[in-house]
Amino acid sequence: MDLNNFSNQKYVLKDDIPRFVENENFASPFGLQWNTFRKVQLDSYTKTSMSEDRIRTALPIPLESIKGLRILEAGSGAGRFTEILLKYGAIVYSFDLSDAVLANYANNMPDNKLTIFQGNIEDIPFKDNFFDISLCLGVMQHTRSFSSSLKEVVRVTKRGGLISFDHYQTHIGHYTSLYLVYWKIIKQLPKNFQLKVTNYLTEVFFPIHWIFRKSPLIQFLLRRISPISFYYGMFNLSKEQHYELSKLDTHDKNTDHFKRMFTFKQLNKIIKNFEFQKFKIFKGGTGLQCIITK
Fold first, then answer.
1. Domains of the chain, with CATH numbers?
2. Which of 90, 106, 280, 294 could join 71 in a cystine, given CB atoms 3.0 to 4.6 angstroms apart?
3. Burial of 290 (0-12, 13-18, 19+ CB in 10 A)
4. Contacts of residue 49, Cβ cutoff 8 Å, sequence gap at least 6
5. Mapping DSSP to helix (H, G, I), strand (E, B) and coil, where does residue 231 land?
6. Is the pLDDT of residue 8 over 90?
7. Adjacency order of strands within the sheet including 114-118
8. Is the entire prediction scored with pTM above 0.70?
9. Phi and psi torsions of 279, nearest 5°
10. How many whole angstroms separate alpha carbon 201 and alpha carbon 205?
């Protein structure tokens, strides 16, 4: 753990993790989620390359070239990407707004190349131009302010450094299904009850999805009414692993406090205002992947 380079030394050290924010905040359901499903997405646990493949899409350079680079991971969750960055020798500074930092710590510590802290993406406790690469996957659509979050990530990234994030894309399917209806109801519930509800919904709907897993038409129809996430055919997982992943992502998509979506044109317009050296946006990650050279 590198405790010397924080630009703000006013933090509470709890469970060996520096805490720059209060533990209870709008991201608290994510903390419960990642500590409940701590290993579900780890490549070392699933024996797949799901997380590594996602990072290869997000970074325009070979993973072998990140050895020794300072990388900021904004929004770590349980540390599925932390594991891969460390595997390739990066010096990783990983944080989350929620208590998910405990899951990341349990999954990836001890490692002298890793610093974990609980913090706010709109107030990152490092000086300007500190990181070679800033990575933010599965997070930006859940932040309080997209622009404020991106500005802060840009501030701490070196001139010429890389910034990569993904973001939900506006999709007609969101408005022709019960997806947003379930979300608006479930996100209002107490977080412990949210988890019970999403686990129950997965228990009910997963067997139906599984029976018809090889029928694209029935899967399409099911997605109009089903509240769960189902990934058969996308990943090489066992039925049990698919079930655990469904429980995790069903909770994830139904309990986020902020859920923002952009069209390609909307995101492109916002990024152009920053006047970066270059950037590109393409389909990837959670919808749209954006790679920036500051």
1. 12-169+261-293 (3.40.50.150), 172-255 (no CATH)
2. 90
3. buried
4. 43
5. coil
6. yes
7. 12-14, 17-19, 114-118, 91-96, 70-74, 131-136, 157-168, 287-293, 278-284
8. yes
9. -160, 160
10. 6
Tokens of 252: 């994830």
Residue 36 banded pLDDT, cuts 50, 70, 90: very high
Question: Whose structure tokens read 């509800």?
Answer: 197
Q: Among all chains, which residue has been given the structure tokens 């405990």?
A: 102
Task: Name the DSSP class of 262.
Answer: B
199: helix, strand or coil:
helix
Q: Go through the chain and tell me how many residues it has.
A: 294
- Beta bridge partner(s), residue 135: 73, 164
The phi, psi pair for 293, rounded to 5°, reads -105, 115
Q: State the residue for tokens 């408005």.
A: 175
Average pLDDT over residues 6-27: 96
